[in-house]
Amino acid sequence: MRIQRRFTERGQSPYTGIEFRESASEIKNPDGSVVFALEKFSVPAQWSQVAADILAQKYFRKAGVAAKLKRVEENSVPSWLWRSVPDEDAMAALPEAERFGSETDARQVFDRLAGTWTYWGWKGDYFSSEDDAQAFFDEMRFMLAKQMGAPNSPQWFNTGLHWAYGIDGPSQGHFYVDFETGQLKASESAYEHPQPHACFIQSIADDLVNENGIMDLWVREARLFKYGSGTGTNFSSLRGENEPLSGGGKSSGLMSFLKIGDRAAGAIKSGGTTRRAAKMVVVDMDHPDIESYINWKVLEEQKVAALVTGSMVLSERLNAVLRACVNCDSDNDGCFDPKQNPALKREVKAARKAKVPDNMIQRIIQFARQGYTSIEIPIYDTDWDSEAYRTVAGQNSNNSVRVTDEFLTAVEEDGDWDLILRKTGGVAKTLKARDLWDKVGYAAWSCADPGIQFHTTINDWHTCPSAGQINASNPCSEYMFLDDTACNLASLNLMAFRAKDGSFEVESYEHAVRLWTVVLEIAVTMAQFPSRQIARLSYEYRTLGLGYANIGGLLMASGIPYDSDEGRALGGALTAILTGVSYATSAEMARELGAFPGYEANREHMLRVIRNHARASRGEQHGYEDLSMPPVPLDHASCPDPRLLAHAMRAWDQALELGRQYGYRNAQASVIAPTGTIGLVMDCDTTGIEPDFALVKFKKLAGGGYFKIINRMVPQALEALGYDEAEVQQIIDYAVGHGSLPGAPGVNLESLADKGFAPEKLDAVEKAVSSAFDIKFVFNKWTLGEDFCTQTLGLAAEQLDAPDFDLLAEIGFSKADVEAANEYACGAMTLEGAPGLDPAHLPVFDCASPCGRKGTRFLSVESHIRMMAAAQPFISGAISKTINMPNEASVEDCKAAYLLSWRLALKANALYRDGSKLSQPLNAQLLAEDEEEQDEVLTAITSDQPAVQRATVVTERVVERVIERVRASAERERLPDRRKGYTQKAVVGGHKVYLRTGEYDDGRLGEIFIDMHKEGAAFRSLMNNFAIAVSVGLQYGVPLEEFVDAFTFTRFEPAGPVRGNEAIKNATSILDYLFRELAVSYLGRFELAHVDPNEIGSTTVGSGDTGHGQSVPETLVSPGFTRGRLGERSSPVAGDAQSATAQVRAISSEVDEESLPETTGRATASLEATPSDAAEHVALAAEALTQRGASALVAEARVKGYEGEACGECGNFTLVRNGTCLKCDTCGSTSGCS
User: Fold this and answer.
1) Where are the alpha helices (DSSP H) in 1048-1129?
2) How far apart are CA 619 and CA 632, in angstroms?
């Protein structure tokens, strides 16, 4: 082949004109521990620090690179292409530690890759002359250095280690086909033939232990996972549960083996890192076990919810039981008897109410009786890499179902659908197609699996149907071809072809497509494969996976909305050019080297597919050959660049004409892959065909740390839309913020100085604000110093350690002050509301999810699907993309998205509803203030401290709660001048106590008076002031429930028997008595009474008072005096803390709660949860778990536009959706296979 130069000059280094810089790389965990560090290496100057980090951490060869190399002469190869080996003689003069090391220059990697491709290309006769080979070598090195294109990760890992450095090792069980003889051979070394392929599809036979059987597949998968590749398999050939076996007996079914394979995959970390295996499981819709398969992950997610909830409940309740036993002063084992220990009785009741098994409660009491004072019960969390998720099945693969047009037609017509036995072909079960479809929709809504693969459409575009059907895909769903084949990927960075004037350099783009097609074809020639069958079929069909990245960035930079006819037309035209030129190049190579071996048997089929591609490029609506579902043709009327239309049509005309004459070298040419890690290496703002995920991003600095920048496409977009430089800067300042507090409204240097901030503290704050995404995260003990916070600001150390502590609010700044200052200093992180921005231009800046806290706009589900539909007619394989759905999307929305994808002729679709995984916090949660109180904090604080200290801490906790509620409401509800109430006289431990209450007109408690001892006594004064504090709290909206929970069971003198109160007979302190009385009288908390209310009389039975702030009839009798039993009172109003709690707690069990079974075998039937109760409990837990566990790191990640999950490799919360996978913006690891 003839290779033209477009980017380089003959006789000149391809690096001429490219500036390189010295860099260092350090990737840290969130806790500061170093994941990877390299002190000095060279990269092109225009590369970002993230791109440099990825190259250094992932793609540099870390060992075995000789300090001195020598060439190995080969007569048939030009001398500049001779491979290298270590020069042992030259290295003998070096210290042993310096003889071998790591790659330390990006040029070493570029030379290694391009040199190996050129070497094998020369040996395979791909070049017409040595000049063509040299041009190819130079052009590829230039494109790598300028981030114009990149191959998939296995190429970076493996290609060229033998050619460039002589690195080798024993064979790992691979095979290759000798390109000169066509003979299949076993590899004799590990690296002479590299493994450059990322995507594999493997078959499985319904056989347990023989070759190609079930257990053999786990071994073949392991070989791929070890080298960082991904694989997919259609498991529909396996028998369903209870189908007969040949030797007698019945099959254990598909699901049992899927669970084994899932465990095996989970045990293997790709590439020896902590990245999970990349695996796709596909099952046909007519498999007998399809219902169990569809619901598999739904049930596993419920198990995770149950594990997490159960572990929290067990830890809380059983530790409370243990504390009740330990913090007791009774003799003769009375501490371990609920009848004698009121605290233990209360905790046993609470544990039973939480459905803790009696034998567990009894076990803890026995544990305490033996002298133990603490017990550790592990608490699981919903992190995707946590023990809870590792415990359940189905977490190591993407799941998809294969649906045919026949099935979808049955869904539309409400027809029947047969599930077919695998061996006999008989009908295992008949059910309504819609019922099965409903299960698919619910599962996708509930847990984001299974995805859909449209079997009929996939095979309508199949270029080689004579070789068999396409049954499966790789893990990311973009590679779809025959079983036991492989595909190596590469992607072009579309933004690299955008000229300074905003035009698209289409000729350079076509040139790059041509060269990268040659690269991928050479990779097939040089490659080794993990099995004989894959080596043979990959050689015979030679599938390629060329694609692109950064379409979202290109559209935004051009001022074109992603969700627009123009955007879709531009995307379709660029895709058409890509695949058309690639097929034309494939036909050129076929002219020189011959068509792929399987071409002749499939010639007419392949030409039919090419003709359909060409029709779509011409924008034709009709005339397609043998397609069940017509594609979405190229929209000529909407394309903003007519040049692209001409190039697209010419490319397909050329591809068809050359193919008719010479055939094609490759059965497939293109896919659109996630481009996760390689997208970062190319500094792409967006991956694959995805839109952007955020408008404000955090750019990494070479010396560590980050600074906040606007998405670099935004200024270009604003310029393209006609804004001048001053307007652009004003809009950017709004989004990014000024990075400084001087001049900020509300919170600024002057107001902080008034609060006691010294100049050095103001400097520290100012420095931190420049890179912060929220000023609240600047004001903490790490920025300011703990001594300053506690001594100068007067804050408690416990407050500083609380995860939800807000220092600015604590020192007196209002929420409005903080929000105004935050927007000024840190920016809105969205363009919504930006000064001077025309609202009509907002669609240009729409992202996959709302941006920042204020953002409300995001791309619709349909916009994702229609962009895919615009590109799919021009792709050989498929498109890896996740369809983002908001949390409020319904099951019907999921089913509608799938049906729309089918009607628009997509090949596959994966939905992701926000929050459908327990491991991901909801977007919506983090956009609002979290006002939930966490009662478990109180328990943890007070658990192991003496009585006096416990009382002190409890008081501080209540005061803290009062302050928080005052901030929320900021209004005091005063009592009427003439009010009701009651007076209760009692004697506690020999001391008279008078409790007087004051009530609102609707019966709610509003004040208390406590009178005891003689006038002037210190204790009496303390009680008076305490009563005033409680009264003020009640009038500011603090629920009585909070006081009751805080002060009951406090222990100090006077204490002892209680006389004069018919419900309460003993108290551990005055406060314990007072708040028991109030709880019984106003809240219906009869479990705090010692006498059953039914034994006292009707005045003790009933619920609490009515809703606060609602229109209710005035009660003429004190509800406290009657203990809640008022006939004329209205029903409780939801939202009032007193009445709602009372209503719930009035429902009491008739079971004797005082004794426990003496043996663990006895059960209390009346305490067993009904199935509906259990289901509701798990459902509520699944909904609330992420709220309770969302940390500041997760919150920060979600506001920045990340997923809110931790990277499994580096631990940073910088994962973003990337096709159907996830990628880490910090270390570049992906959950996919590219």
Assistant:
1) 1070-1078, 1093-1096
2) 8
pLDDT of residue 1174: 39
pLDDT of res. 255? 95
CA-to-CA distance for 260 and 250, rounded, in angstroms? Answer: 18
Residue 862 host element (H or E)? helix 861-871
* Residues tagged active-site: 474, 476, 478
What pLDDT, on the 0 to 100 scale, is given for residue 275? 45
**CA-to-CA dists, residue 4 to 411, 515, 570, angstroms:** 54, 10, 27
pLDDT of residue 1200: 64
* Euclidean distance between CA atoms 1204 and 1215, whole angstroms: 7
Q: Give the tokens for residue 600.
A: 């002749």
Amino acid occupying residue 220: R
Angular region, 1211: left φ>0, alpha ψ -120 to 50, beta rest? left
- Tell me the CA distances in angstroms from 192 to 111, 271, 539, 938, one per residue in order: 17, 19, 17, 64
What DSSP state is assigned to residue 76? Answer: T
* b/e burial code for range 1180-1208 (CB count within 10 A of at least 16 → b): ebbeebbebbbbeebbbbbbbbbbbbbbb
Q: Which residues does residue 199 pair with via DSSP β-bridges, in sequence order?
A: 230, 487
**CB of 472 within 8 A of CB of 232?**
yes
Contact between residue 889 and residue 861 where contact means Cβ atoms under 8 Å apart: yes
Residues in the chain: 1234
Whole-number Å distance between alpha carbons of 690 and 679: 12
The DSSP line for 405-467 is HHHHHHHHHT-EEEEE-TTT--EEEEEEHHHHHHHHHHHHHHHS--EEEEHHHHHHT-S-GGG
Tell me how crowded residue 400 is: count the other CB atoms within 10 A of its CB: 25
- What six digits make up the tokens of 310? 């159960």
Residues with Cβ < 8 Å from 565, sequence gap 6 or more? 635, 638
Q: Could you give the C-alpha distances from 978 to 637, 998, 1001, 1019, in angstroms and in order?
A: 78, 9, 9, 29
**pLDDT at residue 778 in the model:** 83
What is the structure's pLDDT at 1093?
60
Helices 130-145 and 506-526: angle between axes, nearest 10 degrees:
110
Over the chain (1234 residues), the average pLDDT of each successive run of 10 is 95 95 79 74 93 90 94 95 95 93 95 97 96 98 97 92 94 92 94 92 94 91 81 96 89 94 79 60 97 95 91 93 89 87 92 92 92 88 80 89 97 97 94 97 92 97 97 94 96 96 96 98 95 95 97 96 97 98 98 96 98 98 96 97 97 98 98 88 92 76 56 90 94 88 89 89 86 79 84 82 79 88 87 94 93 88 96 97 88 96 96 78 40 38 42 44 42 84 89 90 90 71 88 90 88 86 88 91 85 55 37 51 48 38 35 43 35 41 39 62 71 72 75 62
Instruction: State the helix-helix crossing angle for 1018-1035 and 1040-1047, rounded to 10 degrees.
Output: 140
The pLDDT value given to residue 1198:
63
Say how many C-beta atoms besides its own lie within 10 A of residue 503's C-beta.
Answer: 12
> What's the rounded Cα separation, in Å, for the pair 1072 and 1058?
11
Cis peptide before 450 (omega within 30 of 0): yes
Residue 742 preceded by cis peptide, ω within 30: no
Q: What's the rounded Cα separation, in Å, for the pair 149 and 165?
A: 24
DSSP string, 523-573: HHHH--BSSHHHHHHHHHH--EEEEEE-HHHHHHHTT--SSSHHHHHHHHH
pLDDT at 145: 97
H-run or E-run covering 135: helix 130-145
Does residue 773 contact residue 698 with C-beta atoms inside 8 Å?
yes
The 8 Å CB, 24+ separation contacts for 1007-1016 are: 1007/975, 1007/1031, 1007/1034, 1007/1035, 1008/1074, 1008/1078, 1010/1070, 1010/1074, 1012/1070
d(CA 870, CA 689): 11
CA–CA–CA angle 115, 119, 122 (5° rounding)? 135
